[in-house]
Design a protein that fits this description.
Pfam families: Vps16_C (PF04840). The protein is mostly helical. It has 16 helices and no strands.
């Protein structure tokens, strides 16, 4: 195979056309083990994609095409940015590596690979949190309507053990029109704002939220009592046969 690889592959396919996929995978292995230059890697990947298409496996062929485009873009970025190492990284890891200092290049790469808004916002907030770029994370959160909401901003801060940063995203003076009311008690509970969490859960009459607050927060005796009383009231409401009438009436009042 080392001496006459292409001829060897052609003979295998001639004897058994089903060998195409096996040979295609060997090209991918070669790309990772022996193809050191970008042109060599492109040759291996293009050969693999061609064989997968011949084997009617267009899905894998398309993935290989994407990988080929990615290594070309990585090579271009390394030459342009000098001090970043991108070869061998996935698309997500590549974006994370350049997001903080080279955000315009990251935005361009995102467009090149047609990443949708939701996925890109997730990648961005995780990159900011990993690199402790809290000021940039906060500014990013102030942009018009987040396609992923604002709870993920809180979650990435908590994973980095930064409750102080997480609480910033519950500042009603900034985010009051953006926060999802249904998720507010859960968000307050995650950042240990027990009073606010209980108040919002009671307002929503959410038994689920009250259970979550009990599990998540360190509660004072007074707050434990409030939760118990709220649960009793919600239970009484749920047991009331006229509750659907109440709901209709309340909707009419809100309207």
């Amino acid at each position: 195979e080392e001496l006459e690889r292409n001829n060897f592959h052609a003979e295998l396919i001639k004897k058994n056309p089903d060998e195409r996929e096996r040979i295609a995978y060997s090209h991918i292995i070669q790309r990772f083990t022996t193809a050191l230059t970008i042109p060599d890697q492109k040759v291996e990947l293009n050969s693999a994609a061609k064989l997968f298409r011949e084997a009617k496996n267009d899905t894998v062929a398309q993935l290989i095409d994407e990988e080929t485009r990615l290594i070309i873009k990585q090579d271009e970025l390394e030459k342009k940015l000098y001090n970043v190492q991108l070869k061998g990284l996935s698309l997500v890891d590549t974006l994370e590596a350049i997001l903080i200092n080279y955000e315009k290049d990251a935005d361009t790469l995102r467009k090149d690979f047609n990443l949708n808004d939701k996925r890109y916002w997730w990648i961005k907030i995780q990159a900011y949190a990993k690199k402790n770029a809290w000021a940039q994370l906060l500014e990013f959160g102030k942009k018009p309507a987040s396609p992923i909401g604002y709870e993920p901003f809180i979650d990435v801060c908590i994973r980095s053990q930064r409750l102080d940063e997480a609480r910033r995203f519950l500042d009603r003076s900034i985010y009051s029109s953006k926060l999802d009311e249904e998720r507010l008690p859960f968000m307050f509970a995650k950042v240990q704002m027990a009073d606010e969490a209980i108040n919002s859960a009671i307002k929503l009459k959410s038994m689920e939220a009250l259970h979550f607050i009990e599990a998540k927060c360190q509660l004072s005796e007074a707050n434990s009592t409030r939760i118990r009383q709220a649960r009793e009231k919600i239970q009484e409401y749920d047991d009331n046969p006229l509750k659907n009438v109440f709901k209709i009436f309340n909707r009419g009042n809100r309207a």
